[in-house]
Amino acid sequence: MRGPVAWWNDPWRPPRFLVGITAGYLAWSLLPVAIAVLYSFNNGRSRTTWQGFSLRWYWGDSTLSVWHNDALHTALLQTLKLGVITTLITVPLGVLFAIGIDRWRGRLPEGANFLMLLSFVLPEVLLAVALLFVLTTVALPIDLGTTAQVIGLITFQVSYPAVLVRARLATIGPQYEEAAMDLGASPLGALRRIILPMLMPAIFASTVLVFADVIDDFVLVRYLSGAASTEPVSVKIYNTARGAPTPALNALASLLLFSALTAVVIGFLVYRYLSRGDTTTKDRGIGAFAGEL
Amino acid sequence: MAAPGIVWLLLCFVFPLYVVLCIVFGQVDPLFRTPIPVWNPLQWNPSQFSYVLTHIVGADGIFGPALVRTAVFVFTASSLCLLIAFPVAYYVARLSGRRKGLLLALLIAPFWISYMMRMFAWVNLLQNDGIVNKVLSFGGLFTVNVDWLTGQPVVVILGLVYGYVPYMILPLYAGLDRLSQPMLEASRDLGADRFSSFWRVTLPLCRPTILAAVLLTCLPMLGDYFTSDMLSASPKTAMVGNLINDSVHAPGRTGQAGAFVMLVFLVALLPMLYYIRVTSRRDEVAS
What we know:
- The complex is a heterodimer of chains A (293) and B (287).
- Chain A is built from 15 helices and no strands.
- With 293 residues, chain A is mostly helical.
- Chain B has 13 helices and two strands.
- By secondary structure, chain B is mainly α.
- At the A-B interface, α2, α4, α5, α6 and α7 of A face α1, β2, α3, α4 and α5 of B.
């Protein structure tokens, strides 16, 4: 039997304390959500007492289920619509921004980079309130609603692809492009045929990140939403959680969760495919994909 | 090529911040109580801003408690976040071995789950007949009737920790993962025990990472109002975000919301600048 001193000095002992903390943290962070998803399958009105399994709150119930209740599935569609539109505009904007900033030396691009990083760390409420003020006090042809939400989300998210693509550009370095131009490619040709394919994994990862982030967004979309029909799922949860919601709300939230997870899993597989054989990303695995900054 | 991005940021990021200034220092329509922005900085009228400033401390300090509470909540929650996040990130980044991929995926999972959904999950658990009270009563052994969801500061702080811990773990993980293994081995070879090697090598090496991670959680917490709304919905736990949120749509008080936005912006400015400096310096080293 070893004494406690020998145990303490043994460099090979397993880090039980850290394993405990990690396991405890994972349980604490994932179990509540798992329980919420579980109760979306409850066969009763309660969100706290289990009354048997059913799909009642997804489509069984003819008035209150997500499938049949207009308010609930409008919210889900609005969320997905915002996600798709915002992602389609944000990613090209951010990628071009990053390439431009990276190539262009001087005061102006430095200032632009600063602005971009500032929009990345600024608390979201500040941007949301500022945009709300613009839309309500300045005479603009834009009303509160989907357009306003998309504008706000693009402003808040554009830094994601920009930061990821800039980091990738820094690891690629200038040598490939120089080699291409030595061999006779024009600057634009080198960019299109050499750099863009090499950036593809980063662009793709930021697409998935932006999409998953947009469908989770709450502050901006709430301030900039117009009528109830432009309220996405997160706002719906916020509005009804404190009242007396039925498990249909759990079902709605679970559906959002499933769509986000599906997007991420598909995204990860495609990302692995795109970056196969690339030694600079191989050892980073899933971390590179999660927008490790 | 960066032009569209720059124009976009100027139009939708810088200009709105200027509009906030114009509203804070602008007039209020006497009839409809709607704000009238004043575009010319020379005609700015500081009465709304000074109204907010004079009501923070003193006899009619109606805003003071919420500001103090914000500071206390954010400080406590970030410290707790760090206490949880650092060991977890350390273990997963350096000691987990083969299970690293799976553990990392589980750590990232909360990122993809909507913040509102995670708060809603706790609203369910903390109901009067919810699971937390059931567990605490050991199956009816004790009678526990704690009203968790009406103005309990502890619940709001736990909610903040629960909500923001993932945003701290990931940057910490990235930093600890990059830590140079030869450096640590050298410190052990040169006679440091595990504590002093951790204290004198690991910690100094990842101090910028820790600061960046703390800032990444503190800054969004400063603007948080929905955690308090979801988990307590009581003015007893109102934070500065709640002050903004409550006054934005109140007639005649829009300027106050703008003033709070400015206050938070000013308080957050230094940490934000620091964060930007740390990250750009790291980029320079990398490139």
